[in-house]
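Predict structure. Input: PAC domain-containing protein, 266 residues.
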Amino acid sequence: MGASQRDTVTESQIRAALGLEHPATQDAVLLAIESVQQDLLPPSFELKLTRSDGSHMSLLAGASAVRSPAGDFLACALALTDITERARVMAELLDSSERMRSITDRTTARQAYFDADLTCLFVNRALCAHVGARREILLGRSFEECFDTDEVREMLPRVMPALSGDKQTFLIEKQAQDGTTQYLECRVLPDGGAAEGVRGVFIEIEDITERRRTEDLVLHANMELEARVARRTAELSRTKRRYSLMAEALQDSCIFFLDSTGRISE
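Output follows.
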């Protein structure tokens, strides 16, 4: 407020610093006082105020009610700490987190983030749908509770090296419910390195079954084409050999054609 610790701060200075002339601020302060009077607020709470110039400020308020010996409410004691900058940073982080969640929820791959103790801190919509649980339920759960049993068996030996800073990419083959083979490409990316320490791992599981089937079809088609070309090449080689043998047999022979008068025409 522009005053040192020993300066006397007047009521007008307090009102100006907090923007108490602004109607929205007056309402917020009155609501806080009424809540303290009824013991409805916790010992500390966040108060958002609007200054007279229209700017906003966030205050961390410690409030307590001053009461008479009979228990009647006399006054509200408030200890205020300006946390405007901290609130701004938190709002930016929250906005960034919401944007990131919006992006990851649009992908069909299952994505999750686990801390160094393999406690779930983030999941996207695809993983929630696969597990059949809400996001709020999966957050804070263990690694084993977020994936299928056969997936955990394949992934866990690869996750442990990632916690030491080594990226992992591998393929999981599992049997789907319809009895067909399902192919999953799994990527485990460490958050941090060996020098500064790994804070956690980001895991992404993508179903590549259709892509794998397409690749197999193309591979089989190429193999069949190569086999057909090989068979045709072998057949042409045999035909060439037969013609070569016939040519060799005719080298010592004399072949000519006679016309109707008995003369050699060719």
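The domain at 107-208 is CATH 3.30.450.20 (Beta-Lactamase).
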